[in-house]
Amino acid sequence: MAGPKRTKVQRARSGSFGDRTRSRTVLLNQVLLAGVVMVVALIALVSLFPGNTSLFLAGVLVVFFATAAAVAVPWNSIPAWVSALVPMLDILAITAIRESSPPSGFELLWIFPAMWLAGSFGLPGLFGGVSVVCALYLVPALAPDRDVTIATVILPFTIVALATTSYLTTHRSHVQRRLLDSQTGLLSTALARARQQEETLTEVLEAVDFGIIRIGVDGRVSLRNEAHGRLQSAGGATPDEELPAYARDGITRLSADDEPLARALRGETFDDAVVWFGEPGAPRRALTVTARRVHDDDGTDAGSVIVSRDITAELSAIRAREDLVASVSHELRTPLTSIVGYLDLVLDEDLSPTARRGLEVAERNAHRLLSIVSDILATTAADRSTIELSYQPEQTDLADLVASAVELHIPRAAERGIRFDTSGVESATAYVDPSRIRQVLDNLLSNAVKYNRADGSIAVGTTVDADHAWIVVRDSGTGIAPDEMPRLFERFFRSESVRKTSTHGSGLGLAISRDIVRSHGGEITLQSEQGVGTTVVVRLPARRRTPATSIGAP
Question: Is the model's pTM score more than 0.90?
Answer without folding.
Answer: no
